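ok trying again, last paste got cut off:
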Amino acid sequence: MKIRVHSETTEQDAHVIAKALAEHLDDDIEVYTRDGDTPLASVERTNGTEPEEPADDLGPTDRERQLKEEIAEIKEGGPKKYRDRLEEQGKLFVRDRLDLWFGDDGIAFEDGTFAEFDAEGDLPADGLLTGAAEFEGRDLHFMANDFSVKAGSMAEKGVEKFLRMQHRALKTGRPVLYLMDSSGGRIDQQTGFFANREGIGKYYYNHSMLSGRVPQICVLYGPCIAGAAYTPVFADFTIMVRDVSAMAIASPRMVKMVTGEEIDMQDLGGAEMHTSVSGSADLIAEDEEHARELVAQLMSYLPANSDHDPPQSESVAPVKSPEGIDSVVPQEPNKGYDMHDVIDRVVDKDSVLELRPEYGSEIITAFARIDGRPVGIVANQPANRAGAIFPDAAQKAAQFIWTADAYNIPLLYLCDTPGFMAGSQVEKEGILEQGKRMIYATSSATVPTQSVIVRKAYGAGIYAMAGPAYQPESTIALPSGEIGIMGPEAAVNAVYANKLADIDDPDERAQKEQELREEYREDIDVHRMASEVVIDEIVPPSSLRTELTNRFEFYETVEKELPDKKHGTVL
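nice, full thing came through this time. structure:
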């Protein structure tokens, strides 16, 4: 572009004008006097010029190299002396643990790596790692304590990372994996995280909000004390590594100071105690590799969240033939047998994962598959105390039913019980309270439910085991089944005790007692119940698997509505 200016304009002024116009108009500018033929100044455009192509051999700058060095140093964890102790404690360094879980490429990203980067002292990542990863083909959120940093204790920045991870899980609707190895809150740094609105207490609020929304699975790798012990019990499923993990409100030293009791960590809150006595943990892993295997198996039954159905797989034949079911179940109501022998003839081979097998062992709670479909099994165990329902068994069953229902896993009840246990000890242990909770959970479940009367269904046991009044999709029975207020022995004693006592001849009395017992058994036999349409069907035991396969398939889209209310008051 040519520009004419006053003839008295100097070359210096002409250059300033040309430069300004070139920048403003994005054009080449030549400045002439009004009558001149030679430009006083010329400036080429400066905006919009093509940048020079960068050289192909450019590599990381010193700035990037420094950042990578900082990240690598953070990933080394805490002081070497603490990392070196992990092996003798039977534990992996947290980074090696994540490699075991997710492999080299399984972690999508981490958050908060630079937490406490400027802190005085050695606090890499503030001792807590959070991020997202792929596990067995499933995306999930994770957190993991670094025990080499202040014994995995929690402080302000780590708490913030934990809370952000939970908040994001609520938004994404993806499962959460907690890899816990923490001594609790960092007492000398509690300002800023203990009682704050967004402090450690918010962990448990968020656990409550996530509960039943996304699966929360916790694995314990060491002693988790005080606040750190609540994450495992809030999780849907808790796995403890034998001999190294524990959880308790207070450490043995604190227990001794407060109560005078001397006790070691394993007796106070070890894996065996919590899986068999308190019921606060679901499974024991023999080592870190086994813990990963158990979680992989567990997640294979679970959906990503409560909006989804559980994943299905290919159908696999049972490990034992269904033809043997009738031979497994004795005709005599008081004779023991192992309910696992029935389950193994109904479900897909190698699909059973039993939870809390040592706790409340009169009831079996397990995930399994029937024709590839995940189901939650609640089964009485006649091999243990005749399958009577004790308080701990009722508590275990209630929680299992509640969890399976939350994640849309259909329920299968296998009933063979004399009912709830009676006696002063179980009353002190809350048999009524825990029995109420089991019945409440059964009543509130909205997933497809099948109830099978395998043998005896006496007293309120049939209520807890999803009998006809509890609106299962079907109540079916095997020919060995009996349904009654009580068993024949108790009934004869309760109704005819005085009449039998009047018979002096012992042989005559025994004969009469046997007759009365047989009459009562005819009255409670499932053929009578089927005749009165109390139950839906009596099925040949060898066809039980096929019957359940067809019924679960037919009812898999059933929708059940609960009354419109805020919530019940039982749990």
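cool. The longest helix spans residues 506-524. The CA atoms of residues 312 and 373 lie 5 Å apart.
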